[in-house]
Amino acid sequence: MKENQCFSRFSLALGISLALFASVCSAQWTSRGPVPRLGHSAVLDTAKDRMIVFGGYTFTPDSPPAAHFNDVWYLTSAFSTSPNLTWQKATTAGTPPNPRGGHSAVLDSVNNRMMVFGGSEGFANPVDNDVWVLENANGVGGTPTWVKLSPSGPLPTARYNHSAVYNPTSNRMIVFGGNDGSSVEFHDVWVLENANGLGGTPTWINSVPQSSSPIAARESFAAVYDVTNNTMIVFGGFNTFTGTFYSDTWTLSDADDTPSGLCNGAACWSGPLNTNVFPPPSPRFGQTALYDPKSNTMHIFGGYDGTNILNEDWVLSEANALSGTWSKESPGGIAPRPRLDHSAVYDSSNHRMIIFGGEITTAGVLTDTVAVLSNANTR
Fold first, then answer.
1. Please, which residues have CB within 8 angstroms of residue 127's CB and are 6 or more apart in sequence?
2. CA dist list (Å): 132 to 65, 105, 119, 129
3. For the chain, what are the domain ranges?
4. 61-84, pLDDT tens digit by residue?
5. pLDDT tens per residue across span 283-314
6. Assigned CATH topology for domain 3-373
7. Which 8-state DSSP code applies to residue 273?
8. Nearest 5°: CA angle at 54, between 187 and 365?
9. What is the distance between the alpha carbons of residues 248 and 274, in angstroms, rounded to a whole number?
């Protein structure tokens, strides 16, 4: 059962707008973009300045059922201040994944491969635990081609509204949490070796079993990854079956299950962050997050707190050590409309975050708005 089942299902009249947090003149698209959607994935190829969007779902006027997608779109020159940003739909080869939402995607930028895991094909069932690779993911220099992987080892239980992060050094993808579509919220951690399908057989490892994880089970939380220190940082989320909203912050050290001496040879959780003096953001789900390695900060945007859909921007200092504090920011410019289950990507070289899509009212209305936050790292 999907957590936003309480919303009525309506469609948004088509139209595209662009809002920049920086001082940028009004924009106009040169081509039509993706259908308004939520529950999609987005990754950023910084070398080619392309945001790659896959899948997601939208509502029909009488839905459920929801209409799910398996299309791939590029936002070219994603972080340009030019008003002439352009959407380009990819023409892919190979058999694509089934249409889905609530999946995860990570990018191996060196080998130009995007890895997709899990997701929901319906509202919510059926739920998947398959792994797909999009070769030539950025569409530059070759045809984007879908390949389904066949990992060995015990497979994770099918899930959606989980998180995935990627360590390009070890070629390992780390998956946490999610919902099985029926009766279980997860708080286990799985690691996929040889995640991009190169260098050996992809193999699943259950690094933190469901039975021994100290963090509460949840979905639709925010998760970011400090690659240098191999640490995943998690904030908030929701448990559909208990109705619990979370505002706690945890870190997972040795996240890709390669030992550093911190966790006695396996990944380990630390937390929650002490928030007795400096209160955290309100409990919420459906927010997005970014991590800035230069300032060691985690930023979250948007989400739903059970009463309101939000467009708040919060920053956690000293994020990878759970020794910092949460603070609410007040960016200048025209703020995006409040939303949840949107996507966000971040380019640390120019401190710019870009968000796309999501649900903007409790009537289930969707948006195809793109917004850019300049100077996203304020530290």
1. 118, 119, 120, 121, 158, 159, 160, 179, 180, 181
2. 25, 9, 12, 10
3. 3-373
4. 444 556 899 999 999 988 876 666
5. 999 999 999 999 999 999 999 999 999 999 99
6. Neuraminidase (2.120.10)
7. P
8. 85
9. 9
The whole-angstrom distance between residue 242's C-alpha and the CA centroid of its chain comes to 23
What is the pTM assigned to this prediction?
0.90
Residue bearing tokens 């360590």 = 167
Residue 185 in contact with residue 166, Cβ under 8 Å? no
Question: Which helix (DSSP H) or strand (DSSP E) does residue 339 occupy?
Answer: none
**pLDDT over 50 (residue 189):** yes
Give the gyration radius of the chain's Cα atoms: 19
- The region of weakest confidence among 55-64, 212-221, 226-235, 255-264 is 55-64
**How far apart (Å, rounded) are the C-alpha atoms in residues 345 and 78?**
10
Alpha carbon distance 325, 3 (integer Å)? 29
Indicate whether 242 pLDDT > 50: yes
- The helix/strand/coil state of 6 is helix
